[in-house]
Amino acid sequence: MMNYDIAVIGGGIAGYCAAIRSQQAGRKTVLISQGQSALHFSSGSIDVLGRLPTGEPVVDPFAAISQLESAQLENDELASAVLQEAALPEEADSRQQTIRQTVQHPYVKVGRTGVKQSLLWFKEMLAAEVALSHQPDHANHWRITPFGTLKATWLSQPHVYQHRTNAPFREIVIIALAGYRDFQPQILKDNLARIADFSGLPIRIATIHLPSVEHDQRHPCERRSLDIAHLLQQAPIWSAFCEQLTEMTQSDDLVILPAVVGHGDGMAILDRLQQETQRHFHEVPTMPPSLMGMRLEAALHRIFIQAGGVHLKGDQVLGGHFEGHRLTEVYTRNLTDIPVRAEHYIMATGSYFSQGLQASRQAIKEPVFGLDVAQITPRTQWGGHDFVAQHQPHPFMTFGVSTNDQLHPSYCGETITNLYCCGAMLAGYDPVFEGSGGGVAIATAYHAVEQCITDNVCPATCQEALS
Ligand SMILES: Cc1cc2nc3c(=O)[nH]c(=O)nc-3n(C[C@H](O)[C@H](O)[C@H](O)COP(=O)(O)OP(=O)(O)OC[C@H]3O[C@@H](n4cnc5c(N)ncnc54)[C@H](O)[C@@H]3O)c2cc1C
């Protein structure tokens, strides 16, 4: 049997944040995680809120969270009025539910102050590994994407250019690698040239030739960002790369570089590249695997292990046992009949992408415990009319596990008081449409641990000391 204060299920950004925060707070913590998380596909920037659920663009995400809170307050008042007016209690209850469900955004549960506190904690916690930064006025900045579009984000890695209104460069140079197919410089160039902020600024593509990338291919599609990063660890290839970069660009250019540098050795090698070339880089993520996201995951893993956490990596929680309103133990694929027990459980198993939610033709379910999921029926209303619609999100993206303000989910309508849900598995927001994925994951994970810590149960570490 394995006993912990807090057991965290799922090793994406939400799971890691919950596990690190819990371990930092002196709680004996186990993290159980299977497979890759969304970080392997991410830009490595943390999006907090790029636009409101109404589609309105956001400049200051924290001011916008206050707007979400006010909307919730108005809705609650409306729901109370409905209660007073309704002839039958059942009628009032169902109408109240409908009104509340439209605005149950996770940020409202955490609150503006809590969201900001969690993000500043995240930045501080990672500082020694990856020095993320934001704008001095705490507003969003724009990140140039691999497609040459601009995306609002809040926290970016050191070699990401944070665009606001003007681009103070002589020229923009997009670096291509001959023979590497997971980055499309021409698309980036064409789209970037259409953006008003960059009009009048020359944009060109410069191609670097590294013999081992170009000629030594087993199959045209086989070289991934990870392979290039490993090749660049060889001294002659590194020198050729730096020399060509320096020849093709100048120190007052913005040099857009696909993220093919720095795996394992993380930021150190990128810092070295900048020192050796004296160039101003803007790293863009490539097709997966994304080194920029993996860099964050590797750092989070190191921080958790250094803090003394236990990581059951590559294991999967298959189910658990409930007694009354509490989850008492969970079972995993590798530990078979040996249960993992904890005072509190934090679940961060992600969305459809990570199988934290599963869709069948009839319904959307949470597959581990069968927790209650907020969704609409019939299925014909799950998707919008257009597959790619700029201003109309697909409803299914906001479906997920429903929780109360403490992030406790329910099972068959009964609240589970020692289980907390966080991250992409939650209902009430659309991370893609709003651009809020990283922020919600961090804020809700932090909030979940705060709830566990303020619960006065004697932690396992303290019980061990007393026995
Ligand atoms: C392709 C893509 C790109 C994105 N890019 C960005 C970006 O650049 N910036 C940004 O801010 N947001 C981005 N997002 C959104 C954001 O990354 C996600 O909302 C956030 O990472 C979700 O984190 P999470 O920890 O909740 O879930 P996930 O990252 O999905 O992690 C869930 C983890 O739980 C594990 N798991 C699932 N079931 C079990 C189980 N039974 N037992 C054990 N483990 C289990 C999964 O294997 C996975 O590792 C992106 C999302 C996607 C899908």
UniProtKB/TrEMBL annotation:
GO terms for molecular function: glycerol-3-phosphate dehydrogenase (quinone) activity. Keywords: Flavoprotein, FMN, Oxidoreductase. Its EC number is 1.1.5.3. The keyword Ubl conjugation does not apply. InterPro entries: FAD-dep_OxRdtase_2_FAD-bd (IPR003953), FAD/NAD-bd_sf (IPR036188), G3P_DH_GlpB_su (IPR009158), Metab_Enz_Cyan_OpOx_G3PDH (IPR051691). GO terms for biological process: glycerol catabolic process. Residues 5-440 form the FAD-dependent oxidoreductase 2 FAD-binding domain. Pathway: Polyol metabolism; glycerol degradation via glycerol kinase pathway; glycerone phosphate from sn-glycerol 3-phosphate (anaerobic route): step 1/1. One of its GO terms (cellular component) is glycerol-3-phosphate dehydrogenase (FAD) complex. It catalyses: a quinone + sn-glycerol 3-phosphate = dihydroxyacetone phosphate + a quinol. It comes from the Bacteria. Its cofactor is FMN. It holds the Pfam family FAD_binding_2. Composed of a catalytic GlpA/B dimer and of membrane bound GlpC. Belongs to the anaerobic G-3-P dehydrogenase subunit B family. HAMAP family: Glycerol3P_GlpB. Conversion of glycerol 3-phosphate to dihydroxyacetone. Uses fumarate or nitrate as electron acceptor. NCBIfam families: glycerol3P_GlpB, PRK05329.1-3. This is Anaerobic glycerol-3-phosphate dehydrogenase subunit B. It comes from Vibrio gazogenes DSM 21264 = NBRC 103151. The gene is glpB.
